[in-house]
């Protein structure tokens, strides 16, 4: 069983610096209405990035393995935040946008399905607390 260790250190006021198992660091900060001063990412938005990044890495790997032609690819996550504390995401839409003139839509859909249903651990974690809606959109360039 693998273990990840992340160390998050208070830098003063409302800012923290967090390590990543890769050795990279990033800053975390509160929203302006909560005393934010300086640079940093907001924690709840980061988990949406983690969701998109996890699935995106799966899909990018499958695009390469399937030798698919894709000029550009992006993932948008749109999440509903509850009103009461603790505020949590209770519904998330994940939109996969593929751009290109020779898109193999069936294989790209299969790549997304494999990520969503089999490979993405962050997606599985999200299923524990939110309704997830998946959309795959194809764009000619």
TrEMBL record:
TM helices/strands, residue ranges: none
InterPro entries per the record? KH_dom-like_a/b, OsmC/Ohr_fam, OsmC/Ohrsf
Which superkingdom is the protein from?
A: Bacteria
Q: What is this protein called?
A: Putative redox protein
